[in-house]
Amino acid sequence: MVVLGADGQVRHRAGETAEPLFPRSSNKPMQAAGMLRCGLDAGGKLLALAAASHSGEDFHVTGVREILARVGLTEDALQCPAALPMDEGAQRALLRRGGEADRVHMNCSGKHAAMLATCVSAGWPTSSYLDPDHPLQSGIRAALESLAGERVTRVAVDGCGAPLFALSLTGVARAIRAMTQAEPGSAERKVADAMRAYPDWTSGSGRPERALMAAVPGLLLKSGAEGVEAFALADGRAVAYKIEDGAARARPPLTVALLRTLGAAAEPGADSAALDRIAAVPVVGGDRVVGEIRVKLPLPLGFLGR
Fold first, then answer.
1. What is the pTM of this model?
2. Distance between CA atoms of 210 and 107, rounded to whole angstroms?
3. Which of 81, 272, 274, 305 has the least C-beta neighbours within 10 A?
4. 13 — phi, psi (to 5°)?
């Protein structure tokens, strides 16, 4: 874990925060900013969808198709793997209609559609848009490096098939912070503002990520696979962490505990009761609740002065 103060300086660190790791989907806001820098023409809900790990609800799928249609493409151009919706209700509805796993319902299809739209706008080939040496991916890498303040030293393949650029936890925290502190109208700020305005488009109607951004005004948050999460408050305080065993279930209570330690739950407009609900993650045994996930933060109370 690494915590940055409003001035961008490290106020707390725990564990390994300087070595590269793969932030997974926590990179998506910065990837979307890179796409805008490369010529992507998108805003509002569709820009939020470009940075999303969406749940595959009907409005998400409609949005993905709209991004593609605007540049004359269909979902056949997507190179992410086929998947069923993450949202259980959307999944059941699709199967009842006789549908099956497909690329447009995959949680990263918004990012892939935006990558394709960027290529069309820039005049770049679309068939090779996932090649790490493609000009699109080079532009995204450059955006990540400039926002994180460090070089990408390792490249892998993400679960969606796109290049996955490694950053340190400190770099991830700096990057998510830079998104909220960028000048209004800049690529970075446009992405941050779209995500904060339409949090259901970056995740889903029933997801904790949406609920967290709704509960804390100005919060920008993006989770990633393997227990990664990064968030920044409007004043520039930022956090990035990785849960060592990669499990995701501890993320909501841990993020709420950190937001409370930062004092964000007590700020004007924050919904403290909603944060309590988000943090309540039960442990189920058989058909009953037998426990809960609890967070014990080994942090001194005064470490987060602004």
1. 0.95
2. 15
3. 305
4. -145, 150
Sequence letter at residue 145: E
- Helix ranges, the chain (H): 28-37, 44-50, 58-69, 88-96, 109-122, 135-148, 169-181, 187-197, 199-202, 208-215, 251-262, 272-279
Amino acid in the structure at residue 270: A
CA–CA distance, 75 with 90 (Å, rounded to integer)? 19
Residues in the chain: 306
Angle subtended at Cα 183 by Cα 181 and Cα 188, rounded to the nearest 5 degrees: 70
| Per-residue model confidence as pLDDT tens for the chain (306 residues) | 999 999 999 999 999 999 999 999 999 999 999 999 999 999 999 999 999 999 999 999 999 999 999 999 999 999 999 999 999 999 999 999 999 999 999 999 999 999 999 999 999 999 999 999 999 999 999 999 999 999 999 999 999 999 999 999 999 999 999 999 999 999 999 999 999 999 999 999 999 999 999 999 999 999 999 999 999 999 999 999 999 999 999 999 999 999 999 999 999 999 999 999 999 999 999 999 999 999 987 665 445 544
CA atoms within 13 A on the CB side of 303: 16
Helix (H, G, I), strand (E, B) or coil at 136: helix
At 219, the amino acid letter reads L
CA distances from 168 to 21, 136, 242 (A): 6, 22, 10
The answer to whether the beta carbons of residues 112 and 83 sit under 8 Å apart is no
What DSSP element (H or E) covers 239? strand 238-242
247: left (phi over 0), alpha (psi -120 to 50) or beta: beta
Angle, CA of 88, 292 and 16, to the nearest 5°: 90
Q: What token pair was written down for 70?
A: 């605007």
